[in-house]
Amino acid sequence: MKTASRWYSERVEQVVSLVRWGHWGDPVLIFPTAGGDAEEIERMGLVGALWPLVEAGRIKIYSCDNLAGRAFAARTGSVEYRCALLDRFEEAVAREVVPAIHADCGGGEVDVIAAGASLGAFMATAVLCRYPWAFRAAVGMSGSYDLERLFGFEGTGDYYFATPMSFVPNLGGPVLDALRQRFVVLAFGGGRWENPEDGWRLAGVLGAKGIPNRVDPWGPEHDHDWPAWREMLPLYLDDLAR
After folding, report:
1. How far apart are CA 72 and CA 158, in angstroms?
2. Which of 5, 77, 225, 234 could disulfide-pair with 81, CB 3.0 to 4.6 Å?
3. Domain 2-240 has CATH 3.40.50.1820
4. Which pLDDT tens digit goes with each residue over 205-216?
5. How far is 169 from 129, CA to CA, in rounded Å?
6. Where are the alpha helices (DSSP H) in the chain?
7. What is the pLDDT of residues 28-46, one digit of tens each?
8. At a CB cut-off of 8 Å and minimum separation 6, what does 111 contact?
């Protein structure tokens, strides 16, 4: 029930890996944390936590390497390079990864659910906001949505166009119309290493533009760590999967 594919992307000038678990159900693209690869979610037990939904044929899980997150976490190259890679990686997700998911699902243009934790939450919400025709919902868990503050740099124009905190306040037209038909869950714990402020700020940005979202605080026993995310995501996907 597990398959893997790889291809060279001209957009990011790197190899992109895409792994799938399951045979049937709503496609869910889960982004790894900062620096994570496509199989991180399996090693950390998240695929196992979601397995009842996979076995029931309600979801198919996909994950790709977080190439942009890896560059930021490792401080690879210049700030300009990292910001450009972030922009191009999001485009590669929409223009290459999502079509690969469609092909794997039989060729139909099914809407994908995006999800992720920590820096993966940034990616999930960013691709939904930029490409709402490709995604119908996003689940961000313990998200870091302000990379400038997190990594201590001043972003470029590429960063602006890749970051919902920046570009959503100025959205209009068909993209905003489509986004108002989508849904974003912003969940976080109240335990160690969490930063609830980022989730509330993004919710305010989305809400001000009429984009449906829900902030879901969890208790102090839920740290910024995999045990919390293994508990959170099955509940949200149980609600979102058709």
Report:
1. 14
2. 77
3. yes
4. 999 999 999 999
5. 11
6. 40-43, 46-55, 67-74, 79-92, 98-104, 119-130, 147-151, 157-162, 164-167, 173-179, 196-208, 226-240
7. 999 999 989 999 999 999 9
8. 134, 135, 136
